[in-house]
Design goal:
The protein is α/β, with parallel strands linked by helices. The chain is about 35% helix and about 20% strand. It is built from 10 helices and 12 strands. It has helices at about 15-25, 40-45, 75-80, 95-115, 115-125, 150-160, 180-190, 210-215, 235-245, 285-300, and strands at about 5-10, 30-35, 50, 65-70, 90, 140-145, 165-170, 180, 195-200, 220-225, 245-250, 270-275. Strand 9 (about 195-200), helix 8 and strand 10 (about 220-225) form a beta-alpha-beta unit. Helix 1 packs across helix 10. The longest helix is centred in the N-terminal third of the chain and has 19 residues, at about 95-115. It is elongated, with a radius of gyration of 21 Å. The relative contact order is 0.14. Bound molecules: NADPH dihydro-nicotinamide-adenine-dinucleotide phosphate (NDP) and oxalic acid.
Length: about 325
C-alpha cells in the first residue's frame, strides 16, 4: 500500500489544494491528504505530516504520527503544544526564504536609515526640511539571531555598507560581521546598535527577552525591527520608549496575536510601522522542492533531515 501523509495548515482551501498538488508531484511514493479529509481508518496509518502553521491540535487525531515537516521556519507552537507526543519536527530551511528575509532586512533598514518615516510625517505637515545624512558605514545594525535568516541578512547588510553586529547562542565567525554571544555580547550589541533587527526563534529563553531593562539600555534614537515573533519584544515598553523619544521608530511584522486586533494602539502610533507578517513568506515552489526531497529520502532510505531540538526550543 502507498504511504499516507497528512497535510495540515491554517490556510485557505485553494492554497491547501496547491500545496497538496505540488507536494504530491514531488513525493510520488505517498498519497497526501488534508488531515480533515482522512477517514478514521486512514488516520491510524499516518506517520508523517507536512504542515503550514496549523493549529497543533488538528494533529492530535493522528495517533501514530512520528514526524512533522513544517513549510514554515518557526515551529514554536508545535514544540510547545505537542510536547507530550514525542514527535520529531523538521522546520523549513530554504535559501530562498533566507534571501527574501535578507531583502526585507535591507529594505526596512534603508527605510529607517534614509529617514523615510520622518519624511512621510514632514510631507503630511507640508514641511520642507532636510534631515542630516549619515553614510551606511556610520550606522551599526545589530542582528539578534545569526541562524539561516540572520546570517544571510547580516551578509546583505554588510555588502550594502552597514557596520553589522550579530548575536547568537553559540559564537559564530562570519566575514566582516562582529559576532557576539552571551549576556555581555547582548549588552554590547544593544548599546551600540542604531538599528536592531530581531531574528531569534521564540523559545523559553527568548520570550520577553527584550523587556524594560534591555530596551532601555539601547542607544538613544535607535530603532527596532521585529521580524521574528511578537512575544520576544515587550511592545508596551517599546511604545513608552518611542513616546519619550528614547527610541525613534519600530517596524513590527509579528505580534502576540495575529492578525493584530483593530483596537490595538500600535496601529495608530506615529512611530510604528505595522506589517502583516510578510517579511519572508514561504515560497511554495522552493519549499515543496526541499520538503519533497527530504520526505522522499526518508521514504527511500529511512534517513531523516535535521530535527528540531525540542529541549532547546528551536
Ligand atoms: P535558526 O534556528 O536558523 O536561527 C536561530 C538563531 O537564533 C541562531 O543563530 C541561534 O543561535 C539564535 N538563538 C536561539 N536562541 C538563542 C538564545 N537564547 N540566545 C541567543 N541566540 C539564540 O532560525 P531562522 O534563522 O531560520 O529563523 C529565525 C526565526 O525567524 C524563526 O524562528 C521565525 O520565528 C522567524 N521567521 C519569521 C518570518 C516572517 O515572515 N516574519 C519568516 C520566517 C521565519 P545558534 O546559532 O547558536 O544556534
Ligand atoms: C515562518 C514565518 O516561520 O513565516 O516561516 O513566520
Amino acid at each position: 500500500m502507498q504511504n499516507l501523509i497528512a497535510f495540515a495548515g491554517q490556510i485557505e482551501e485553494t492554497e491547501k489544494c496547491h500545496w497538496i498538488s505540488r507536494l504530491s508531484k514531488k513525493i510520488p511514493l505517498a498519497d497526501i491528504i488534508a488531515v480533515e479529509d482522512l477517514t478514521v481508518d486512514q488516520r491510524d496509518l499516518v506517520e508523517i505530516a507536512i504542515v503550514a502553521n496549523p493549529d497543533p491540535e488538528t494533529l492530535s487525531v493522528l495517533p501514530n504520527l512520528k514526524w512533522v515537516h513544517s513549510v514554515w521556519a518557526g515551529v514554536e507552537r508545535m514544540i510547545e503544544q505537542l510536547a507530550d507526543q514525542n514527535l520529531m519536527i523538521t522546520r523549513l530551511k530554504d535559501p530562498e526564504l533566507a534571501r527574501t528575509m535578507a531583502e526585507a532586512s535591507l529594505a526596512w533598514t534603508l527605510y529607517i536609515h534614509r529617514n523615510m518615516p520622518e519624511y512621510a510625517k514632514q510631507q503630511r505637515a507640508k514641511k520642507w526640511k532636510e534631515l542630516p545624512y549619515r553614510k551606511a558605514s556610520q550606522v551599526t545594525v545589530g542582528i539578534l539571531g545569526l541562524g539561516s535568516l540572520g546570517a544571510r541578512s547580516a551578509e546583505v547588510l554588510r555588502v550594502n555598507g552597514f557596520s553589522v553586529h550579530g548575536w547568537s547562542r553559540t559564537e559564530k565567525q562570519l566575514e566582516g560581521i562582529r559576532c557576539l554571544s552571551g549576556d555581555s555580547g547582548l549588552s554590547n550589541l544593544l548599546c551600540s546598535s542604531d538599528i536592531l533587527i530581531v531574528l531569534l526563534p521564540l523559545t523559553n529563553e527568548t520570550r520577553g527577552l527584550l523587556g524594560a531593562r534591555l530596551l532601555k539600555s539601547m542607544k538613544k534614537g535607535a530603532s527596532v525591527i521585529n521580524f521574528a515573533r511578537g512575544p520576544i519584544v515587550d511592545v508596551a515598553i517599546l511604545e513608552d520608549l518611542l513616546d519619550t523619544g528614547h527610541l525613534s521608530h519600530a517596524v513590527l511584522d509579528v505580534f502576540d496575536e495575529e492578525p493584530l486586533d483593530p483596537s490595538s494602539t500600535l496601529w495608530s502610533h506615529p512611530d510604528i510601522t505595522i506589517l502583516p507578517h510578510i517579511s519572508a513568506p514561504t515560497d511554495m515552489e522552493t519549499a515543496s522542492e526541499i520538503v519533497g526531497a527530504n520526505v522522499m529520502r526518508f521514504l527511500e532510505t529511512g534517513e531523516l533531515p535535521e530535527i528540531v531540538d525540542t529541549s532547546r526550543g528551536y
